[in-house]
Amino acid sequence: MKREFYCFILMVLLQGDFLHSQVKSDQEVLRLANTIPQEKMFVHYNTSVGIAGESLRYKLYAISEATNKLISISKLGYVEIIGKNDIVLFQQKIKLENGSGYGDFFIPVNVKSGNYKIIAYTHWMKNKGEENYFKGDLAIINPYSEDQTAIIGSIEESDSSTHSEKSFQILPESTAKNSLASISTSAKNYGKREKVLVNIDLQVADAASGSYSMLVRKLDTFDKPQRPNADNWSLNEPSKKLVQEFKEGKYFPEIRGEILKGKILSRASANVSVNNKVLALSIPGRNDILKFAKTDDDGKFHFILDVSESGGESAVLQVMDMDVEDFDIRLNEKFTQNYKNLEFSNFRFKPEMEEWLKERSIYNQIENSYLIVKSDEIISSSQDLPFYGEMTEIYDLDDYTRFQTVKETFVEIIKFGSIKKGNDGKNHFEVRSYRTSLSSGLPTLLLVDGLLIQNHEEFMDFDSRKIDKIGILRDKYYLGPLVFQGVITIETKQQDYFLSVNQDLILEKGTLKTSPEKTYFSPDYEVSRQEKIPDFRYELYWNPDVKVKKEDQPIEFYTSDVSGTFLITLEGFTGEGKPVSASKTIKVLESEDL
Questions:
Q1: Crossing angle of helices 26-33 and 2-15, rounded to 10°
Q2: pTM of structure
């Protein structure tokens, strides 16, 4: 316990003061960095042959290299699907809680057929290079595309850079198992739309403290890229290379959430200093986020976002200076660039697979046409208060006479506010404190739909008929390196004011967004049979958060209208870091075969 506590303190230091290189030497940072446990990543994903129009689903497991236990240092994982020549099909950030997280990716119909890699890592793992990342093989078939050259033809015709990954010795999926776990089912054969009961028997005392995922999917009968399972993956010796010196471009563990790093540059026409500038990061959303950071001598800056703050669709980054047009803001790339040593599988489409592809494509199209009644459910996060807390006074403008501009509204309606001319010669909104009616000389923080507004005067002529509510906080407010006399929040009816600002200030849409947590669709025909709705699921069940308890508590799911052999797979790790891989097959029969 003491060792874990000291490691935590060291990580806080690394992510705090040590992000500024002038505070500690590279040698001290390196010494401390190497006391933090190293991570590796395992991914359980639902298929190694995906069809355009289907979803790739996966679960991430962050594992300690030293103990093989789930490790909760990093709060974010990064997942990519990469094709040849570094073609990026997909990139996603996943929240990690207690060392695991999950997500999914809908394979678009404009994707090219070919062999791809699913890659996963943490920010901390990037120090040891891509050879330490998780890499799994994935073939994608797009039956709607005319270009099938990447998967048609003999192996001899393929180029030498396309050969099978040799990092893992994989057993056939139908025999993947270890002695720790076993799966039993209520029967061997089932009819269509029939309930299946699955019991998991884990022969370890710490089973309940582990993390597991379960997949039930129709078993393909052709050769395809093999997926690592937890048991075989754990045999792969991790890289023993130490973290290298922390200089430009090196990576710290994201122990609280995302580390957003970048640099501001002076435009040639401005020729102004970039050091000691204050930047503001606004993240509009259900609970608005506003953070400040200062640049160093070279104009570099960083923000540390708690994991709960990484869900915004958009964000605005601006220099706290009236001459904001004098600066360019550049963010460091979060995902790995220019992979050097990727080796792809050699999946080839064969003539005998034609009927299989035709059936699967037809069934997939039918399933997608009923997504409105078969959609996954997004788990809503708790409603937190915005960073400034609750407003002490709220003005719903529908309760008052509507004036044309915000300036008029503020003068006529807002009781404890006023408009003053500042030293810059411009008008500013001002909030009076509780203690005195005199001006404090401090600026008032103005937020419109969660966006920090620096130039109050430009907003004063905004059409007040577009505004829903105005909130006032009269206390002195401390935020980062700045102090404000009160806060004014304005909520427009469309809540989209940030779209009207300089587009150069808006971070790329989705820059901060993480994959939402979901409950994946699984029908219950005892509650609602939905007889008139077709059910052609190839994947009967996916649960990335299986709870294993000592007492018998079977997992339930229903078969679909698809007959054949289905494979149940369980993957995960016990509380003590023992890998768990187990599988069992069941058959779904036509009615005449029952």
A1: 140
A2: 0.88
